[in-house]
Amino acid sequence: MDTIIEKVNPCQPDEKIMEQAGKRIAAGELVAFPTETVYGLGGDALRPEAAAKIYAAKGRPSDNPLIVHIADFSDMERVAREVPAQAKKLADAFWPGPLTMIVWKSDEVPSATTGGMDTVAVRMPNHPVALELIRKSGCLIAAPSANTSGRPSPTEAKHVAEDLSGRIAMILDGGPVGIGIESTIIDLTEKKPMVLRPGYITPKMLSDVLGQEVVMDPGIIAADDTTKPKAPGMKYKHYAPKADMVIVDGEETAVIAKINELTKQRRTEGKKVAVIATEETRKHYHADVVLCIGKRSDEDAIAQHLYQILRECDDLDVGEIYSESFQTPRIGQAIMNRLLKAAGHTVIQV
Q1: Long-range contacts of 261-266 (CB under 8 A, 24+ apart)
Q2: pTM assigned to the model
């Protein structure tokens, strides 16, 4: 299959290109497109065969549910058995935006889209290209990240092409995304709302809108595999570069010393070593490659650059990666969740 790549203005996408992309979705084909979080791989959410194509293209386990993307809140009534009052409150506050809500699914949503579950994950993306694609297709669009399963999520169209060229019909290139990590997922089917995946929208922000405590699934922040996450997708290794990756956590000078010690050992073994550092610490490392993820004070930049840097490690063909940890105040939990998954929960405390 030849994959068509079309450049689109992320603010004012070309109508003809969007119509072409919409027709492909409506015909049961797959189209990758930008959102404000990462690039998504879209297919008709209400056609089981489209879901099957998504799983096949990604090499994704079929028990890992797909998120249904909508362009209007009224579409929630199509996919949900009933729309909770909490969903309306959260939508008013955060949609369109990087928040996915889990509700009980309607009969209209095939189990192929939901990974066999009785719930459905729904979000309204905050990106003109994504919203226009939904509207032009006349479909609700199921879309996981547009990468092969387990690889770092794509934040640029070239990342999608690296992973999926020849497997999907079309890629809409809207340039780099804004946020760089996937949406927060909140489960509204329990008595107490629970975050199943941390993201840009924090539990505190959700609690403030709902007027009640929003809890975090303990399985997604555990540093080992003894606590199982509630969301099926979070049990798999994700976001991983090809090289082994280790996170070193602790006081700054001790982290630098430990990473340099480990780097020296690996280099004597003939391995090419990369270090993921911040603007403040990059000059202190002696690795083959030192990749700067941004200033520690700018956690939005850290999130935005994370997957790009993990892919850069692959391009540079490094044999070992050491990363500082990022316990930043607002979205540090989301950043560390992705790093832990990428490192297979390999952490050294110093």
Answers
A1: 262/322, 262/348, 263/287, 263/322, 266/319, 266/320
A2: 0.94
